[in-house]
Amino acid sequence: MTDVVVVVAGAVYEEGRLLAARRSAPEELAGRWELPGGKVEPGERPEQALVRELREELGIETEPVERVPGEWPLRPGYVLQVWTARLVSGEPEPLQDHDALRWLAPDELDAVDWLDQDRPAVAACARRRREGVGEGTRR
């Protein structure tokens, strides 16, 4: 049995809006939107990977709040896990693999072309927000 690589993504909220990032690479994903994050490195906990990836990709410091229940298949051998995250400091900027960021209000979540694998994760985050679970607000 092959080990599965976990990819973590952050559902970062500010003033009730969700942060979305538009991919600039690789070419087959460019122009589509995702929850920012990346692979968990060997010896790293998912929460540590999330903080590191959001720092590298967006230049922000975050604090993981909770894992959103479920995991979603990516390509073979990879799964996506999502954590809500509190923005502690910094203003997000597209530093790596992204060319645009957007804060989406709850009624704007369908306004961007999400990557197929991110759609169910975004829907799960939206459900939890409606239920008042996983509040991840700044400071």
Order of helices and strands: EEEEHEEEEH
Q: Which residues sit in consecutive blocks of at least 5 with pLDDT less than 50?
A: none
Q: Architecture, CATH level 2?
A: Alpha-Beta Complex
Number of strands: 8
- From the N-terminal CA to the C-terminal CA, the straight-line distance is 42 Å
* Domain unit count: 1
Instruction: Give the helix proportion (percent range).
Output: 10-25%
Q: Whole-number radius of gyration? A: 14 Å
- CATH level-3 fold name: Nucleoside Triphosphate Pyrophosphohydrolase
The secondary structure category is alpha+beta
Instruction: Please write the CATH class name.
Output: Alpha Beta
Number of helices: 2
Largest sheet: 8 strands, mixed
What is the average per-residue confidence, as pLDDT, rounded to a whole number?
91
The CATH homologous superfamily is termed Nucleoside Triphosphate Pyrophosphohydrolase
Protein name: 8-oxo-dGTP diphosphatase
InterPro entries: MutT-like (IPR047127), Nudix_hydrolase (IPR020476), NUDIX_hydrolase-like_dom_sf (IPR015797), NUDIX_hydrolase_CS (IPR020084), NUDIX_hydrolase_dom (IPR000086)
Catalytic activity: 8-oxo-dGTP + H2O = 8-oxo-dGMP + diphosphate + H(+)
EC number: 3.6.1.55
Please, could you describe this protein's structure?
With 139 residues, the chain is of the alpha+beta class. The protein has one domain (5-92, 102-130): Nucleoside Triphosphate Pyrophosphohydrolase (Alpha-Beta Complex). 18% of the residues lie in helices and 36% in strands. The protein has helices at 46-58, 119-130, and strands at residues 5-14, 17-23, 33-34, 37-39, 61-67, 72-73, 78-89, 98-104. Strands 1, 2, 3, 4, 5, 6, 7 and 8 form an 8-stranded mixed beta sheet that branches. The radius of gyration is 14 Å and the shape is globular. The mean pLDDT is 91.
